[in-house]
Amino acid sequence: MTQMGNSQKRSRNLEDIAARAGVSRSTVSRVINHDPKVSDKTREKVWAVIEQEGFSPNPVARALATNRTNVIGVVIPHSPHITFEDAYYFPTLLSGISKIANKRGYSILLWLRQSEDDERNFHRRIVSNRLMDGLIIASPPQTYSLIDHFLEANANFVMVERPSHHADIINYVTIDNIEVAYAAVSHLVNLGRCRIGTITGNLTITDGVDRFEGYKQALLDGGLTFDNELIYEGNFSYQCGYDGIKALLDKNIDSVFTANDISARGALHALHEAGVRVPEDVAVVSVDDLPTAVQVTPPLTTVHHPIEKKGEHAASILIDLIEGKVSKTQHVVLPTELIVRESCGAYLNVEN
Amino acid sequence: MTQMGNSQKRSRNLEDIAARAGVSRSTVSRVINHDPKVSDKTREKVWAVIEQEGFSPNPVARALATNRTNVIGVVIPHSPHITFEDAYYFPTLLSGISKIANKRGYSILLWLRQSEDDERNFHRRIVSNRLMDGLIIASPPQTYSLIDHFLEANANFVMVERPSHHADIINYVTIDNIEVAYAAVSHLVNLGRCRIGTITGNLTITDGVDRFEGYKQALLDGGLTFDNELIYEGNFSYQCGYDGIKALLDKNIDSVFTANDISARGALHALHEAGVRVPEDVAVVSVDDLPTAVQVTPPLTTVHHPIEKKGEHAASILIDLIEGKVSKTQHVVLPTELIVRESCGAYLNVEN
DNA sequence: TATCTTTGTGGGAGCGCTCCCATTTTTATA
DNA sequence: TATAAAAATGGGAGCGCTCCCACAAAGATA
Lengths: 352, 352
Fold this sequence. Notes:
alpha/beta; Rossmann fold; elongated; 352 residues
């Protein structure tokens, strides 16, 4: 009975452990924090009690004392880029972030803005929540008051994608979207395609603009003229790919560059319905290399987008920043690679 | 200069605000917490200072004092069910959770287990992280030591999907997977199909088992005999749908029930390659109603799976539990609905 | 005007840590 | 053995809140 009463009472804090181990609160704290200034004998004694009691220190109290929480925030605004149609982007990014966070002992506080949430309120809640040591902001729209706020507050944050303003003083991780599009379109040019249409992404987003820019450059460098007729302004969605191709088919294209795989899928669907052969009649090239890129017919030639790596780098930079391991502004541009499959007929040409 | 020095110094805590407003720390606390026992005059005076200083109370200190953080945890184990192939499930669930969390003033701490993370360590970190008032555990594998631990610790948690053990004392939100499969297969039966194959989900997961069970019941109730030849054991993946259909085609099926839309897509792909007409030669029915269900050819007849609603209910129950608004064990079974499109030929039959 | 309520306000104690300085104990050196 | 230096330990103060009790001020009742 007495024994039971004894073992029932779990140790709640350092003081309890200290009492049980016959040392002081401070010594227990030192043991837990791996302070070398503790004798081996004491350390063992204290660890034994800690293990036996299954004790772990209260992170809230620790946070109050140290002003550090070991939590990083991830803000996912409800932007057109991250719709649930492209449900792949966001979990993959998160997976990369989580990989590094887990490794370095950080937890992730997730801020998902719902379409019905008021933006001001959403921001206010993030800003006043001081449970985080730093933030990763994923693909924000062009104007984004949060960023100004954090900049002003001199807070630790890293953006995924290149910011449209203050890019020089903001930490970010991105790919070179111009180059990505350039590589894709050049591939078409090299295969002899000359009426190359495009279904653009959202042109209010840096990524969309950059990919469109790369398209234009590749055409020019390939000796082709840029033709406004061959542009269909889309928004990264399946639907715009589907609608876009119908519009472009009238313009007699022999190939199309879609700004992402989702819209490429829409395009492929429409092409199939129209009885147009891919790649023989119209070649399709895209960006992202989603898992579905190999599930469509024909398998999609697309530029691989290292989404998970983006998350890893963003988390890594942020934690370095938090821990004071780096101080100057960090810019990371990850390499990309054109994955040649069958939707452009590259292999057919080689065989000729 | 003096003025600047003055305005530069942001108020850090209640005491600062109190000093500026000429009241005590306690009164400021009362104002912030909407305690009615404050005179209107004082309240206004204090609010004015708070607004002017842009002050918000430190949540860490508050958490230490109240033993409540207003944070809920979401654990996503790296289970076969939630692979990134079905990237839709997890963000959608999260979206539902976030919707309610935002509304009720809670933040979300996300625990994503990476394949390389050690399970014990992962659990240990969650358990010792007392930054959360409660947890939502999404689709765990059958044995899941976390659950036992939380059960033992008498912690607040809600599972998404029906747990395999202790279901009577665990809060959960789910759909009736037996009924779901039953509805799908009965649809085929009613359309006169009689050689109905199935590509099952992962049979180590409750959902997979239940859907298989529903398939069997529907066959029996439909006056058909259950034939082992027509079963292909899959795992919810695209690949198993693809492979499964090839195996089943040899068995002369006239229709197939796939355990989810992802595997249905794989099946459709293989069917198309094999030159088999859908729905004329083989009808396909599935579960989930992902956005891609309307993007395939033909559009998929499938049972709608209210994933986002699951998240909403789970969050809602958890927060009720935390706030003491409910005490007894909560079990929610959400309704589902068969969405008839073209992959089973229902409309064709109607026209006949 | 005296007394009892009611309403409003202030400040101590405490949440469980860390940090720092003072003190004790041990070890090295003369 | 005396003394200096180094290593180990203890405990106060403080992080910024909330909670509670004591008290002051204002209003109601006799």
